[in-house]
């Protein structure tokens, strides 16, 4: 049996707690011989800054390059509000994304039937919701230069951010979206602001070209980002796959995640290109939720998004489909069994903490 | 009685139909002696392009500079999808905003009690909702340079947009937000992405400084734009005033508007600075909804947002508080009377078209 090199980066806040639970699942899979892992662990985010003055060390980056897949918890927190910009916790995550060229961020927004009532939206609007946001992750305003703050006269300052997209960046993310749509309901909505942004003009044009040349069996629709935000609230079930840039993807995927009522449940995958020779594809898996400093350290966090992220790694990085199914079935099982952390608690259910949810998951496996 | 110079720019799509109804209200106010108007009218958007090859003519711009207030319907539509970028319908609106320096865009997201059930959200989450989004409207990525698409080798292209903010632009919009909060529930949430954008870093810093120096009686909270999107869905009533940049404001205000279930009902104001000498303040009023090409020309559009925009003009530009109250009371009256256009129709109500709603409004006045 192949041994899979897995790097664990718990990060900050509840990242640490949810990573502890996923480790138990990994151990279980390893001990039962379902899969074989070589585990490394390291720091990222504020935790890394506290230890070495950088939001990720060179050593951790080397481990990331060597790994078959990375599981990341979450980064950030008020403790690091005043560290230099280059050293803020998020910079560790952004460096991983950029240096490993993890350009395709897959964010499923799925409404678990058992949790439809936890949504802000009326049940009929979200029941059965299954949207996949495909967010470009290594370009756009996150990384474009110049990105500066400069002093003008009179104590005035000028800040600049630059959004840059080249055709190839749009082409490759469009392909990912169309390919995924083919395995789903065959529909892609591409989202930008071509009415005010030149990157939006290029985005729309390139997505249309890739569609016409390679994917004209897939239904393609273009929506402006503001309309898309509206439509997500009005009628989210109209969507199958949404493909969008780094910044719009950040906001729209958070809105979509919140719609489901299952925020603490949602995993994500950030994938690189398939390497021509090795056939390898770099990948990082992380919950959609953040470090949640308000509940960190209290044992209240929901570990399901983190465990679901492991399931995505089993499926997409290791080809362990059965193991992935098994972990996902365990998640469905604990929900059916009525176990609920605070974020998804409702009347009549069994309230558990982070490790209680971990116990329940192991019992289901 | 002072005569108020009002410029009407119906624009495209349903803009034309809703403007026709607001004209009837203006006539009514004028005929009854409630207010006195000198009305000018001109083209903007696709309509202007079709007539003069520009999305707004120099003549119309001159009228805009001469007006005390502008009412604008909506711009855009698929008909102009392939006109040159500089000539697209939106460019007319953007030029008005920029040249008149209408930097403060006020977008109330109010849930009319009679319409709470039209929201996607559960009634208890939106009943009584009253959020005011204060969006910066003349800076950011909408206007920053460079803003280009260039050819690279191999048929590849590179597109660039630039987000620029200077301290003074953030200071003045922050002041507007804090001042308005004082007339409301005294709370401001400032929204940016300081964790990835330098303009976000400056935004947060300047808003905090203005707060500390001039408005420390107002409660100020900072939220990242992605979190703010989530929070709008999760618990919108936590918000009083949200202050944010041009691009985030575009998306978040559309999400907020859609939450209310009253999209066709929501007016907006875009205000310039108060001029030192004349005490005048340039202003443009327009519905939050767009040109809605799918229903344009069918007599189905809801004119209430347009009529509400007139009420805002009466209040903020002309100081005609009683007239503004009267128009707003008429809006409340037709809703209480059960009149509903398609967008807000529900079982048991009286379905009306655009002019039917206009009739009902006049009857209430
Ligand atoms: C932590 C932060 C840098 C990050 C982002 O803005 O991309 C987060 O919000 C996310 O969506 O993964
Ligand atoms: C029409 C368009 C240019 C405009 C914008 O993006 O600002 C619209 O969406 C708005 O919100 O007023």
UniProtKB/TrEMBL annotation, chains A, B:
Binding site for NAD(+): 77-90
Pathway: Amino-acid biosynthesis; L-leucine biosynthesis; L-leucine from 3-methyl-2-oxobutanoate: step 3/4
Enzyme Commission code(s) on record: 1.1.1.85
Gene3D superfamilies found in the cross-reference section: Isopropylmalate Dehydrogenase
Family: Belongs to the isocitrate and isopropylmalate dehydrogenases family. LeuB type 1 subfamily.
Assembly information from the UniProt record: Homodimer.
Name under which the protein is recorded: 3-isopropylmalate dehydrogenase
Organism from which the protein derives: Ancylobacter koreensis
């Amino acid at each position: 049996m192949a041994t899979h090199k897995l790097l664990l980066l718990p990060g900050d806040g509840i990242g640490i707690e949810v990573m502890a639970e996923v480790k138990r699942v990994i151990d279980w899979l390893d001990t039962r011989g379902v899969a074989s892992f070589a585990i490394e662990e390291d720091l990222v985010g504020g935790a890394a800054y506290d230890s070495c003055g950088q939001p990720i060390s060179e050593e951790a980056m080397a481990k990331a390059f060597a790994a078959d897949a990375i599981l990341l918890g979450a980064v950030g927190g008020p403790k690091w509000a005043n560290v230099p910009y280059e050293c803020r916790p998020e910079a560790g995550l952004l460096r991983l994304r950029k240096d490993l060229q993890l350009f395709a961020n897959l964010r499923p927004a799925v409404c678990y039937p058992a949790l439809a009532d936890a949504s802000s939206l009326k049940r009929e609007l979200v029941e059965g919701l299954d949207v996949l946001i495909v967010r470009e992750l290594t370009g756009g305003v996150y990384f474009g230069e110049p990105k500066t703050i400069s002093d003008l006269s009179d104590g005035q300052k000028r800040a600049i951010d630059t959004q840059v997209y080249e055709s190839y960046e749009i082409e490759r993310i469009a392909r990912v979206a169309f390919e995924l749509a083919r395995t789903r309901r065959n529909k892609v909505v591409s989202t930008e602001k071509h009415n005010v942004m030149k990157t939006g003009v290029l985005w729309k044009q390139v997505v249309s070209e890739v569609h016409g040349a390679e994917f004209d069996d897939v239904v393609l629709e273009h929506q402006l980002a503001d309309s898309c935000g509206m439509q997500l609230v009005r009628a989210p079930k109209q969507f199958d796959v949404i493909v969008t840039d780094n910044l719009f993807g950040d906001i729209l995927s958070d809105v979509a995640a919140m719609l489901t009522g299952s925020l603490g449940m949602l995993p994500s995958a950030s994938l690189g290109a398939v390497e021509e020779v090795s056939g390898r594809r770099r990948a990082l898996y992380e919950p959609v939720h953040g470090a949640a400093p308000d509940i960190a350290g209290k044992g209240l966090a929901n570990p399901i998004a983190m465990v679901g992220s492991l399931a995505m790694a089993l499926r997409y990085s290791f080809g362990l489909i059965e193991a992935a199914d098994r972990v996902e079935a365990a998640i469905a099982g604990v929900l059916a069994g009525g176990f609920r952390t605070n974020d998804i608690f409702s009347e009549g259910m069994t309230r558990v903490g982070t490790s209680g949810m971990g116990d329940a998951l192991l019992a289901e496996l």
